[in-house]
Amino acid sequence: MAEISDTDAGPGSEPGSEPDSGAAPTPIRGALSIVLSIAVVVLALDQAAKAWAIAALGDRYGDEARVAVLGDLFGFRLVRNPGAAFSMATGTTWIFTIIATVVVVVIVRMSRKLGSRLWTVAFGLLLGGATGNLTDRLFRAPGFARGHVVDFLELPHWPVFNLADSAICCAAALIVLASLRGVGIDGARVR
């Protein structure tokens, strides 16, 4: 697996080296395609996992609702979440649908300016995760733009979540890492 470097190496520079301070950062060729490819993989895995969870866990209620995989450390529990993360604001599902749609549009527009592989992967994960949960909000019960997100992964002392949520959290971690390393979206080093 290829190592993710901070910036794309330009002609005559070493991978991971800092661009010349006088040279403008160069956007990654095909960055939008990379972002979309990562997003499609995340979306496909997320929706396939949710379909499995509904089929395998849909008839479990009460004490049998949780399926232990690693004892108390990890298990499956089917939850239909009408709210945001941690089931906050459950009566305003339509607002989260609008927010997720705006996030998707902004990510696609900003992807043309990406000059860092780290940011490119983060945007792909973020787009895939946002699209995975947006798909639930648009097409699942109780209705269009009011659908409940399917969550099924359970850790102790943590709300039940899904693969889209995991992708969003990984994207957030990569964005924090890029920021701590001083790498801008365009690949330029910020001192």
UniProtKB/TrEMBL annotation:
Pfam families: Peptidase_A8 (PF01252). It is a multi-pass membrane protein. It catalyses: Release of signal peptides from bacterial membrane prolipoproteins. Hydrolyzes -Xaa-Yaa-Zaa-|-(S,diacylglyceryl)Cys-, in which Xaa is hydrophobic (preferably Leu), and Yaa (Ala or Ser) and Zaa (Gly or Ala) have small, neutral side chains. This protein specifically catalyzes the removal of signal peptides from prolipoproteins. The chain crosses the membrane at residues 84-106, 118-139, 159-180. NCBIfam families: lspA. The lineage of its organism: Bacteria, Bacillati, Actinomycetota, Actinomycetes, Kineosporiales. Its EC number is 3.4.23.36. It is found in: Cell membrane. Keywords: Aspartyl protease, Cell membrane, Hydrolase, Membrane, Protease, Transmembrane, Transmembrane helix. Residues 1-24 are annotated as: Disordered. This is Lipoprotein signal peptidase. Belongs to the peptidase A8 family. The active site is at 151, 165. It comes from Spongisporangium articulatum. One of its GO terms (molecular function) is aspartic-type endopeptidase activity. Its main location: membrane. The gene is lspA. Pathway: Protein modification; lipoprotein biosynthesis (signal peptide cleavage). InterPro entries: Peptidase_A8.
